[in-house]
Specification:
Number of strands: 8
CATH architecture of the largest domain: 3-Layer(aba) Sandwich
Shape: globular
Strand content: 5-15%
Largest sheet: 8 strands, mixed
Amino acid sequence: MSVAENDPPFRCETLLIVGVGLIGGAIAQHARQLGVAKNVIGLGRDASRLRAAEADGVIDRGVTTAGDVGACDLAVVCTPVDRVVADVQSLAGLARPPRVITDAGSVKEAICAPLHCVGQFVGSHPLAGSEKSGFEHASAVQFKDRICVLTPVPEAPADVLRAVRGFWEAIGMKTVTLDARTHDQVLARTSHFPHVIAYALASLLEPGDAPFVAGGFRDTTRIAASDPALWTSILMANRDAVLETFRRHRQKMAMIEEALASEDAELLRAGLLEGQRVRQSLNS
């Protein structure tokens, strides 16, 4: 791995992607296109999917056994959050483990706490993605100028953290550092709970409502098209923070319900204005 003038800020000989799905495929594509890695290897369970990823130019080579990877500079684990810990431990236990390991999981405390003794691991969460799944949709994922959160444990070696930060910045992301718990609390509000709302709202439709669905409903429920199995694992892994967000949401909804029940237009308007102000501030 190296950093050099007039080259991508981070370069490596071999990059390993564990889980060549939407995010894993997008990371692989960006690393290849930007010259961040000379060789990109995909590790997964389904040999036919890996062959398809090879044929599409997403990865250079696919393997189904970690022992077949060989020498590797950096590994990015992109499997569902309930598998990340085991996958990292498996890589770290190889006779020739990757020099640096990170992940792309949407939950961090459940991942980073059990891995604090794995010296070459630093947790990451690239804030990019889609409601779609599979490497076939990876080209739609954009990393440029998006945030990637790093959640290193205090014991993380400086060179490992530097390599992980350099990798994400090399594929166009901006990195910020948070402790794992703070990350999970923030993401419960900005991502995890909004998915719950989208799923719940979509399920409210009655038979015959579909012809009357327009932009508002489609915009609000777009992420309800996401893989329920993936989101079950995310929500269960971050359930404490999500439940706290539920409590706050109930308070907001109770205020709006009370305003409607009591025909208090001013209270209702105040509640809606608060939401409008916050939403408009995101565009500034």
